[in-house]
Write a structure and sequence with these properties.
Elements lengths: L8 E4 L9 H19 L3 H15 L3 H4 L1 H8 L3 H7 L10 H10 L3 E6 L3 H11 L7 E4 H4 L6 H10 L7 E5 L2 H10 L3 E5 L16 E2 L3 H11 L1
Parallel strand pairs: 1-2, 1-4, 2-3, 4-5, 5-6
Helix pairs in contact: 1-2
Keywords: Hydrolase
GO molecular function, one term: 5'-nucleotidase activity
InterPro entries: HAD-like_hydrolase_sf, HAD-like_sf, HAD-SF_hydro_IA, HAD_sf
């Protein structure tokens, strides 16, 4: 249960937390390999295996999240390809109500994401979630992925916050570990970031399925 009286700042991941990760998973596992296969006249399975190998080698680094890096490496216009399947971009359940609730409680809400600015701007255009956020920070602006301790020190310099009175919600266990090491007191993990994938068994951090669980906690804490 969250004690909202002990929380001033809420840091929120985007993909897999506020937005359904199915869009990104489909893009990297299906759409991009298909377009790469067409451009290079190879089979889909060959292209998919290549993309998986390349992404696995960079997982957790800033390049892993950089659309420009992948455009240069694969010789494709990846940001343009992102827009080809924008109909799959969707909010996770209860996201809009949760963001409105944060505003009503006068909590400072920051989006902290590893998303590349091109992809980030596109998703904000489609969803409009930026209207509920006080600050939007991309790790590309800070030069470090959220998996790195350097990200959290840089974030503190740019947008000062009290780690002991901060809630951070993310779906990435490595990112949550880095936030815990930095000293953020209140951490939550998303159990099912991709609506088309199974619910995960999370044991390292407190976890929720959807944001209505936090809204219920808020209501009960006021009782």
């Amino acid at each position: 249960m969250l004690d909202w009286g002990q929380i001033d700042t809420v840091l929120l991941d985007m993909d897999g937390t506020l937005l359904d990760l199915h869009y990104d998973n489909h893009f990297w596992m299906q759409h991009l390999p298909q377009r790469y296969a067409e451009a290079n006249e190879i089979s889909f399975s060959e292209a998919q295996a290549l993309v998986i190998r390349m992404t696995d080698e960079l997982r957790g680094t800033l390049d892993w999240y950089c659309l420009q890096y992948w455009s240069d490496t694969l010789k494709l216009d990846v940001p343009a390809m992102y827009r080809e399947i924008e109909d799959r971009i969707a909010l996770r359940p209860h996201t809009d109500n949760f963001l409105r609730s944060l505003r009503a409680m006068e909590k400072r809400a920051l989006l902290v994401t590893n998303a590349h600015p091109d992809g980030l701007q596109h998703k904000l255009e489609v969803t409009g979630i930026d209207r509920w956020l006080d600050v939007i920070v991309s790790s590309h602006d800070l030069g470090h992925a959220k998996e790195s301790s350097l990200f959290w020190h840089s974030l503190q310099e740019r947008q000062p916050f009290d780690p002991g009175r901060t809630l951070f919600v993310d779906d990435n266990l490595h990112v949550l570990g880095a936030a815990r090491d930095y000293g953020i007191a209140h951490l939550l993990c998303i159990r099912q970031p991709d609506s088309k994938s199974p619910v995960r068994d999370i044991t390292d951090f407190p976890a929720i399925h959807d944001f209505d669980e936090i809204l219920e906690a808020k209501t009960e804490s006021r009782a």
